[in-house]
Amino acid sequence: MATKRVGRPATPPPGLPHVAPSSHKYPPIRHDQLSADERREAASKGYGPGRRSHSPGGLSITPGEWKLLAVVLLVAAGVRMFRISKPNSVVFDEVHFGKFASRYIKTRYFVDVHPPLAKLLITAAAFVFGFDGDFDFKDIGKVFENVPYVAMRMVPATFGVATVPLAYLTLRALDCRATTALFASIFLTFENGLVTQSRHILLDSPLVFFTALTTFLFVGFSNEDKKEPFTEQWWTWLVLTGLSLGAVVSCKWVGLFTIATVGACTVLQLWLLLGDLHVTPRTWARHFFARAVCLILIPILFYMIMFQLHFAILGSSGEGDAFMSSEFRQTLGHGMEDTYADVALGSDITIRHLNTQGGYLHSHAHNYPGGSGQQQITLYPHRDENNIWRVLNATVDGYEQYDYEHKPIVYIEDHSRIKLRHIVTDKALHSHEVRPPVSDVDFQNEVSAYGMTGFVGDINDDWIVEIEKGDGSDKQSSKRLRTLRTHFKLRHLHSGCYLFSHKVKLPEWGFEQQEVTCNKNAVKANSLWYVETAAKHPQLPADAPRVNYKIPGFLSKFWELQRVMWTTNAGLTDRHAYDSRPSTWPGLRRGINFWVKDHRQIYLIGNPFVWWSSTASVIIYMLVRGFLILCAKRGYRDFDNTKVVKYDSLCGFLFVGYCLHYFPFFLMGRQLFLHHYFPALYFAVLLNGAVFDLVTSTLRPKIRLQIAAVLMIIAIMTFSKFSPLAYGDPWTKKKCESARWVKTWDIACNEFLDEYSQYSGVTVPTLNRSTPMATIGGEPGGRAPIVVEDKLGQDEVAPPQDDHTTAAPVGAAEPGRDVFAKDEQKEIKSQIIAQDVPVDIDEKEISVVKFEPTNEAAQEPSSTREEDKVYDGDVGSGTRTGEPEDQGHPGAVVENLEEVVEVGEDNDKPRVPHGPLDHEEAIADQVAYELYPDARDVE
Amino acid sequence: MTTSMPFTRIPPFEKALDTPQASAAVVGVLTAIAFALRFYKINQPDQVVFDEVHFGKFAAYYITREYYFDVHPPFAKLLFALAGWFVGFDGHFTFENIGDSYTENHVPFVGMRALPAILGSLTVPVVYAIMKETGYSTIIAAFSACIILFDNAHIAQSRLVLLDATLILFMSLTIYSYIRFRKLRYWEFTVEWWSWLIATGFFMACTWGSKVNGILTVVTIGIAVLVDLWDILDHKKGFTMEHFWKHFMARAVGLIAVPFIIYLSFFYVHFAILTHSGAGDTFMSPAFQETLIGNELLMNSQELRYYDVVTMKHKDTKVYLHSHPDRYPMQYDDGRISSQGQQVTGYGHDDINNHWQIIPTKALPEAGRGRIVHHDDIIQLLHVNTETLLLTHDVASPLMPTNQEFTTWAKDDHSRHNDTLFYLNIVDGNHDDPWKSKSSYFKLVHGSTRVSMWTHSKQLPEWAFKQQEINGNKNPTEKSATWFVDQVISTENPEGHSVDHTPKEPKKMSFFKKFAELQLLMLQHNAGLTSSHPYASGPINWPFLISGISFWTENDEQKQIYLIGNIIGWWTCVITLSIYVGILGADLLARRRGIQPIPEAVRGRLWNSAGFFLLIWAVHYLPFFLMGRQLFIHHYLPSHLASALLAGAVLSFILSDTINYPISIAGRWTKMKHSEYADLGMRGPVAVGVFAFTMFLMFLYMAPLTYGTPGLDGETVNAKRLLSSWTLHFAAKVTAEVL
User: Fold this and answer.
1) In angstroms, rounded to a whole number, what is the distance separating the alpha carbons of residues B257 and B263?
2) Residue A32 has pLDDT above 50, yes or no
3) Which of A836-845, B148-157, B625-634 has the highest mean pLDDT?
4) How far is CA B169 from CA B54, B113, B148, B182, B206, in A?
5) Shortest distance, CA A184 to any CA of chain B (angstroms)
C-alpha cells in the first residue's frame, strides 16, 4: 500500500484553492512510475502497463477533440442521409421489415426470426409520422404510397451515423492517438457497405450500432476497473454495458456474439483477479456477482421486456398464428367458445395433434391414390365439420353397439378400447399393414378411414386410449379423457402402432395437408393428441362442466416464441441468388443486388480499400502475434517491452472481438449474406486503426497526420467511385464496367445507360395514380413485377407472346427469404378443389402421344381423355368394388374381404377446367389479390 | 525401477501382484475370459444381422472381384474377405436382407465372425498393457480392462461381421505404441525409439484404413505430437533449433509419410483385387468405369455420328429428354406468361418421344471419321416424332422464374435458327474427343444465351402429365446439368448398330487418379448420409447409454440382439470422467490462489497421462456433434475405451496418494529423481474385485440381448429394459379393456 502513494503529488498546502478532480488529475505520463521489475511482473500477469499507475478510468479526451468529433459526425450524417428519399420504392428486405412495421401498426400477429427491438424502433418512427399500415411492401421496386418511408429509413440511418463517433471514442478509450481514432472513424464513414445498409429499412445498422456501443461501454468499464472498482462511475459503466448488451441481442440474435466477446473478456478479467493474491475471496465474489448481475441478468431482463412490448402491441390475430400453439392463439382474439369437459362413449369430438401445428385429425371423401386406396386421413389446420369424430365402443368380439343415448354415461378411461367414427363420411379410423404414401418405411403403417353405413367394422378399427398425462388442476384428467386437459396416445389394437403425425406434407392429391400414420417406433412427442372440443353428450345435463384453453402467461408465451424462432432460424437453409459463405466475406468476393429499376441499381458492396486493408491488418496481427509466441518460446523477451504489451492487449481485444463475430458463422448451415460480416468488419476497421497506431508510433505527429490524411483521401476516393451503387444514382455502363475490379462482382452493368445525358430524359417515376393498378409476377424469389395497367374493365388480354415482357431479367433483386410467409397453410377447403385428382392413371400411359399432323383432334392431350374415361366410369357406377386388399400378414385375424373402395362422390360436380384454358380467371384472381389484400387476409 | 521404498511399506500381497509373473497371469486370465465371452455361441444367430448386410456383401465382392463402392476405407473389409476366403467362402451369397439364413445358403459365416471376435478379444490385453505401461498397478490395469471385457456393447459389436472391432483394436494399439514411444523420450533416435515411432504410424494407418472415423485417432496423435514438439521447442530445455528440426523430421517421416504409404497400399490392393464390373460402377466416372472388366460402358460405348438417333438421360435424376406435341399453357397459375411452345420435359420411361437426332451445323464429308461428333461441336437436336428442333430462349420456365424455358421449333422455319444451336460440352473433354454413348457425360450449353440444359426433381403440373421440368440453368458449368446418351436407336455407322459382344480389353488408369477420385467420392457420400434411421441417436445420448440399436430379431422364439452397453461400466466411466474434470478445475483454481494441494509427481501424472486419455476421449467424441450425418451409438465405442482408461487413472488417484514414478526409461543424461511407488493397500484389490463381479453379473443379466439367445418372454423383456428409452422388441404389452 505504501508504494502506491509514492508517485502521487503532494497534498496541496492549506489555504490554496482545491483543484477539483478531473480527468487531468493524473498526468498523462504514466508508465515511468514503475520500476522495470514491476513492469515485467505486471506484464506477465497480462495487465496493461497502466495497472498500478492510476489508469485514468473511463474516457479522457480533450475539449478540442469534441469539436473534431462534431465535424466527423456532420460528415457522417451527410454521407449517410444524402438523398435518403431516393429511391422512392421498396428496396431489398424492406419487403419484410416494412411489412412488419405495418403489422405492428395494425396490431396483427406475425412471427419473424429476429427479436423485436429494431423493428419496434422503425415502427415507432413510422407511427409518429402517420403511417396507417395499409401499404403492403410486397415487391422490390414497388413505389411507396402514403408511407413515411423517409422517417422509417432515418432510424437505421441515425444509428449508422452514431456508430462513427463511437468508433472514435472506443479507440481513444483504448489509449490510441487522436489521429488514429480519426483515421478509423473516417474509414467507417466512407464504408460503402455500411452506408448502403444503413440507408434502408434494415436491421443491421442498429445491430452494428449497439455492437459498437457495447464495445465502447465495456472498454470504458475495463478502464474504470483498472483504476478503482466499485465506484459510482464503475457501476454506471457496468450497468450501461449490460443494457447495451440487452439491446444488441434484441436487434438480432447475431448479438449473441457480442455477448460472447464481452463474456470472454469478463472471464479473463476474473481469472486475472483470482491470481492476484491481494484480492480477498470476498472481494472477488463481489466482483463476480456484480458482473453476473449486470452482464447476465440485466440483458436478459431487457430482452424479455422487448418481447413484453412485442406481445402487448400485437394483440390481434394475423398470419403468424399458424406457427403458435392453440393456447397462444387464445391470446390473439381467436378465442374459442367453452366446450364440455367430459368425453364419453357417443361424444362428438375434435382431436388435435399436440406437437406440430398441423391441426385436427381430419378425413374427407378422397382416397389415397396408392396403398390401400381407402379414404385419406390427414391433419387439417382449420375448423371444419370433417374434423368431427364420434367415440364409440369397440364392437368386435361380440360387443354390442353401446346405446349411449339411453344407457348411463360411460367415460373414456385409460386403456379404453374405442372406435372413432368419422361422422360426415360415416367411416371408422382404420389402420393396417400397408405402407403409408409418403413415409414409406417398414415401421410405419397407413391410416385410413374405412367402412360404410351400417357396417360395424373390423378389428383394425379398434384403438386403445393411453393417457399420457393429465393436467394438475384437474385431478380427473389423468384418469379419464377430459377435453383439453388430457394428453393421450392412441395405440392400434391389432398392430400395436401409435397414431402419429409429423411435419411431412402429403402431395397435391392430399391438398398438402399433413400426413397421419401409425408408427411402431413412434417418437412420443409426435404421437400425443388431445381433444379440443366435445359437443354435448345426450346424457349430460346442460350445465355440465365446461372448459377452455388456459390463457398462457408471459413466460410461457415468451418461451414458445423463442422455440419457434430457433427452429425456424435453423431451418432457413434455402439458397438465395445472392447468398454467400463466410469464407468469401473478408475478400469481398461478391455483393448483394438490393434494387434495380429505371437504369439504376443499388448493390451492396463494401469500400474495397477499407475492406481489404482491414482484412490485411487482421492477417498481419495474426502473423506477428504467432511470430512473437514462437520467439518467446525460444527465449526472446519481447513481451517484457511495454510497447509490445500495450499493443498486444489492445489488438488482442479487438482481434477476439473480430474472431467471435466472424468464425461462428462457419458453423451455421443457414442462408448467410455479406451483411452478416458487418459487426466483424467494425472490429476489423478498429484493428486496422490499432495497427496504424503501432506502425506510426515512432513517427512525429505531423508526419503521422500526413500519412493518415493520404490514406483517408484514398478511402474517400474509392467511396466516391462506388457511390452510385450505394445511392442508386445514375451511372454509365462504361464506368460500371471499369468499377468491376473483381470478376465475381455481379453488378448489373447492362442496366445502366451509356451516357449521363440520357438520364435527364428518364423521369424517376412517381406514379401515384388513383386508377387501380396490378402487377403480374414479382413474387419473392421471382422476377421483377410487370406492371399491368388498368386491366380491370377491359376485355382485351395483353398479348402474351411479347418476348420482352416474359423475359427473366438477369440478376433480379430478390429479398431474403421470409420462412414464415412461405409456410403458410393453404386456406382452401379440401372439398372445393377436390375434383382434379385423377384416380388410377398409369403414369406411363399418359405421355405416349401419337403424332398425327393431319388430325387436329388427336393433338388434344391424351390425359384428358384418360381422365374423362375414369370420370365417366365413376359417374356411371357410383362406386366400384375394388380388389380385396391384401393384408395377409402372418397371424392376422381374418380380415374383411369385401372392402369397398369408394371414389369421391363429389365427382358429380362439373370439373373446373385447368391448365391453359383458365388463364383469364388466373389473371382476375391475381388482380383481386393485389387490389384487396384486406379481403384476402380476412379469409 | 527400484522397489526399495523408504517411506511406504508395501503389503506383500500387492507387491506380489505387481511382479511380471503375476501380471502375466492376470492378463492371461483376462484374455482367456475375453475369448470365451466373445466366442460363446458365435454361430448364433445363423442369420444376417444388421450391417452384416453391407460388410458381408463387400467381403463377397472381394472374393468375386466385383467392383463396389463404400464410404469406408478398405482395410477392415479386406481382412474380412481374407477370412472369408480362408474358410472357403466363394462369394455367392449376397447378404441381401437382415434375417437371411446362412446355414441354408452354406455360408461359412463362423469363420468370418471369428475374425472380429479375435480382434475384439485382443483389445482387452491391449487395454491392460496401456494401463500397465502408463505406470498404473496391476489392479488398476485390470480394472480398466474389465470395463471393456464385460461390456455388452463391445462384445455384441465384435461378434458380428462389423468394422468396429478392427477399428478399436488398432486404435488401442496406436495408443499403446505411442505411449511406448513417449517413454523412450530420453533415448531419442535409438532403434527402439524408431521402432515404436514407426509402429505408431503403422497402426494409425490401419485404424484410419478400417473406418472413416479412424481419422480421429490420427488427429489425437497429431495433437499429442504437436504438444510434444512445442515442449522441445522451449528454450528452457536448452535444445538447439537443429535438434528441434531433427525431431520434427523424424515425426514427419514416422507419423505422416509411413502411414500415408500404408494407407495408399490398402487402396492399391483394393483396386488390384476389384477388377470386374459390379454394383459400384455407377458411382464412378466413365473413365474409371472403363477400367473394369465387363463394364456396361466398356461394352456398349460407341462413338456417335451425325444423323444418329439417340436417347439422352439426365445423370442425376435418370430421366429421358422428352418432348410431345402438347404446348405450354399460355399463362401459369402465378400469372407469368409462357411462349406456348411445345413442351420439353423429363420423362422416366422408355418411349418413342424420347428419340432425338443429332443434326450437324457444318458441312460433313460423305463418310468416314469426319462424321463423328466431337467435343465443342455446335449441334442441333431434332425431335424425331414431331420434326421440331430443340430450342431455348429468354422466357422464364414454368416452375423457376430464374431459369429459361425449353421448347421446340419447327424444323423448316429458319426464323429462330440461332436459338436452336447448342454447344456440346463433354465433361473433362479435350478438343478432339469423340462423343460416345454411355461413357461421355456432357452438358448442352445454348449458343446465344449460354444456359445449360438442366432438370430437377420437381414435377410439372397436370398439363404436362406430372413429368419433370427441363429448363436452362444460367450457370453453364452447373454440376448437376450433366447428361449422357443412353441408347443409340439408329446409326449409319458402317460397323452398324450391332454391338460386338467380344469382351473388350479394359483401359488403364493411373493408381493415383483412381485413388483421388475414390477419396473425393467417399467424402461426398459420407456427408450425404443424412436420412433418418429409427435407431440413429444424437451424440449427447451416448455416454449415458440412453438408447441402443436393435440389430436383429426373430419372431418365432422372440429372440433379439440389441446393442447396448453394460450400464454399470458406462455410468462408472461417466462419473469418473466428471470427477476428473472436477479435480482439474479445482487444481487450477487452487493454484491460481497459490495453494498446491496435489504433490508434483501425482499432478504430473494426472495432467499428462490421464490428460492424454481425456484428449483421446474428447477427440473421438466431440467432433460428432458437428456432423450432420446419421449417427449411432457404436460410434461412441472408441471414446468409451478411452473413458475406461481414464476411469482407471481416476480410480488410482482416489485410492492412493502416490504413483509409480518414474516410468519413462532413464537416459544417459537424465537426472535420477526420487522414485516412489503407488500404494493402493488392500482396498484396491477389494474394490476392483467387487466392481468386476457386479460388472459380470450385469453382463450376464443383459447377455440374452447381446447373444440373441435364448428367446425371452414379454415379462423378461420388460425386466431387462433398465431405462425406459430402450426400445426392445417383444415387450409385454400392458392391456386392459373396458366394457
Assistant:
1) 10
2) no
3) B148-157
4) 21, 15, 12, 20, 10
5) 37
DSSP SS3 for A632: helix
CA distance A180 to A183: 5
Phi–psi pair at A503, nearest 5 degrees: -75, 60
- Residue A163 confidence (pLDDT): 95
Distance in angstroms (rounded) separating the CA atoms of residues B627 and A78: 48
Name the residue of chain A whose CA is nearest to B350's CA. A844
Question: Any residues with CB less than 8 A from the CB of A786 and at least 6 apart, and which?
Answer: A775, A776, A777, A778, A805
Residue B130 grid coordinates: 496401456
Which residues in chain A touch residue B457, judged by CB atoms under 8 angstroms apart? none
- Name the percent of chain A lying above pLDDT 90: 32
Residue with cell 468529433: A69
CB spacing of B465 vs A843 below 8 angstroms: yes
Q: What percent of chain B clears pLDDT 70, i.e. is strictly above it?
A: 95
Q: Residue with C-alpha cell 439458397?
A: A575
Residue with cell 453488378: A747
Residue B334: pLDDT over 60: yes
In terms of pTM, does the model score above 0.95? Answer: no
Domain boundaries, chain A: 61-312+579-723, 336-548, 819-938
Grid cell of B490 as nine digits = 439408329
**Residue A906 pLDDT > 50:** no
Q: Does B235 sit within 8 Å of A577, measured CB to CB?
A: no
Quick one: average pLDDT of A825-837? 38
The shortest CB-CB distance from A399 to any of B233, B466, B739 is to: B739
Cα–Cα distance, A822 to A809 (Å, whole number): 23
Which residue of chain B comes nearest to A272, CA vs CA? B592
Chain B partners within 8 Å of A779 (Cβ): 334
> For residue A43, with 0-12 CB atoms within 10 Å meaning exposed, 13-18 middle and 19 or more buried, which class applies?
buried
Under an 8 A CB cutoff, do B334 and A782 touch?
A: yes
Best of B328, B330, B562 to substitute, by most chain A Cβ atoms within 10 angstroms, is: B330
* CATH code reported for the domain at A336-548: 2.80.10.50
d(CA A640, CA A617): 23
B396·A783 Cβ contact <8 A: yes
For cell 388463364, the residue is: A919
pLDDT of residue A395: 63
Q: For residue range B247-284, list pLDDT tens digits in order.
A: 999 999 999 999 999 999 999 999 999 998 888 888 88
Q: Whole-angstrom Cα distance, residue A521 to residue B631?
A: 17
Q: Kindly identify which residue of chain B lies nearest to residue A524, measuring between CA atoms.
A: B725
Q: In this complex, do B327 and A669 lie within 8 Å of one another by their Cβ atoms?
A: no
Q: Inter-chain contact B351–A847, Cβ cutoff 8 Å?
A: yes
Task: Kindly report the nearest CA distance between residue B199 and chain A, in angstroms.
Answer: 30
The one-character DSSP state at B434 is B
Delineate the domains of chain B, giving CATH numbers in brackets: 12-270+542-720 (no CATH), 297-493 (2.80.10.50)
Q: How far is A803 from chain B (nearest CA, A)?
A: 7
